[in-house]
Amino acid sequence: MKRLQTIRKTGGGGCNQVVLCQGMGTPEFSLWIFLSSLIAGLLGSLTGLGGGVVIVPVLTVLFHIDIHYAIGASLVSVIATSSGAAAAYVREGYSNIRIGMFLEIATTIGAIFGAWLTTRVPTHAIGFIFGVVLLYSAYASVRMKHPEHGQQKPDALAERLRLHGSFPGANGDEAYAAQRVPAGFSLMFLAGSLSGLLGIGSGAVKVLAMDQAMRLPFKVSTTTSNFMIGVTAAASAGIYLSRGYISPGLAMPVMLGVLGGSLTGSKILVRAEVKTLRIVFAVVIVALGLEMVINSITGRL
Amino acid sequence: MQVTDQKLEIAIGRMLQTGVLLAAAVVLIGGILYLHQATGSRPDYSHFKGVAEALRSPVDIFNDARHGDTTSIIQLGLLLLIATPIARVILAAVGFLFERDRLYFCISLIVLAVLLYSLLHAA
After folding, report:
1. Which of A10, A93, B23, B33 is 20 to 30 A off residue A101, Cα-Cα?
2. Partner-chain contact B84 A243, CB within 8 Å
3. How far apart are alpha carbons A208 and A191 in whole angstroms?
4. A199 touches chain B (CB under 8 A)
């Protein structure tokens, strides 16, 4: 009870009143969770951060749900978003199935490692790492600088693994080839570990690996990342299920809400100006990230 | 039939979308039944205890869902959802086989092996 009195309203559909949190009926509670997940999915899709990274802090900070249940519900919603958006991404013709498949070796092994870590690492450490990842994601979403992919020679490993392709550019098909494969592969292992540990898609780290390390075009990186997110999350989902992290009563409104929100978001996204939204939303993410870091350090999470 | 990467990706994209819609429909049906049956105040999620054993294994979930247990029906929908990316890897492996791309057929099998290891090891 003491903990409940310290709740501060930080925005969003909320559980700021003690009455709302305790003694609430299941349908009413599910509706609140559904609406919050809808907004999280919408914002996650509009900003490119993904729904998982938004819904976990909402569930833990605003609704005081244990982080294990929160990441379990988030992980299934991440799979839904990734698979649900796949058809739309394919039509654009940017995603590269070979680069994705090769890097999934690293992300899936990382995901198993990450899911194993959740059973070993104390709750406040998970919260702390989550907060740091949130802060990084916010930074990555507003930073617009992307390296030139230009006409570099592919490295030998990329050549052997045929990590190259072309995409429909302004002046016909533009060719590209991957650079620095070992660096990208290592970062993908990290992305997978974070996904398994935190129940998120960790799209920001996946894009970092492809866009910054492997020098792949940004559009290729983001669309290929979307495909990889579902496969990566599936690798830790089995472990989450057997550990009892996936609670049907909670995962149901979260999954349906995040899926609905992100599908709506991807429809709005077509030719919408999202730069201002990105910045506003980054501020919200920073606030949630700081809240998680502080709560973890002071032991309130 | 000529199999190209583009055709393969379109087929995979459609399959994923169908899988998600099917999974969401099962979760929604289970969810409506679950909320219809719910009485009293909401479950407490503030302390982690883990869900009931019967909701943790695919075999138990399948059996209980057949007998109309609402939480198991939701869980069954979530299992369908978890299966969609796995089906994607299988479909890609088959596609690479048709393209006679042995390297990527093997890479797909490695990813599939990791996914199955995770599921079987967990059970």
Report:
1. B23
2. no
3. 9
4. no
- Tell me if chain B has a CB within 8 Å of the CB of A91: yes
User: Is B95 among the domain residues?
Assistant: yes
The CA-CA-CA angle for residues A192, A198, A204, to 5°, reads: 55
In a domain, B53, yes or no: no
pLDDT in tens, A238-292: 999 999 999 999 999 999 999 999 888 877 765 556 667 777 778 888 888 898 8
> Structural domain of residue B82, as residue ranges?
5-37+58-122
Give contacts of B89 with chain A, Cβ < 8 Å: 101, 104, 231
* Number of residues that this document lists for chain A: 301
**What is the residue whose two structure tokens read 């995603």?**
A95
**Angstrom distance (rounded) from CA A235 to CA B117:** 9
Give per-residue pLDDT as tens, B20-68: 999 999 999 999 999 998 887 888 898 898 998 889 989 899 999 999 9
Lowest mean pLDDT among A18-27, A199-208, B75-84: A18-27
Domain count of the fold of chain B: 1
Domain assignment present for B78: yes
Secondary structure string (H, E, C) spanning A146-214:
CCCCCCCCCCHHHHHCCCEEEEEECCEEEEEECCCHHHHHHHHHHHHHHHHHHCCCCHHHHHHHHHHHC
Euclidean distance between CA atoms A285 and A291, whole angstroms? 10
**B18 to chain A: nearest residue by CA?**
A84
Q: Does A247 touch chain B (CB under 8 A)?
A: yes
**Which of B51, B62, B116, B117 has the highest number of chain A CBs within 10 A, making it the mutation to test binding with A?**
B51
**What is the ipTM score, two decimals?**
0.92
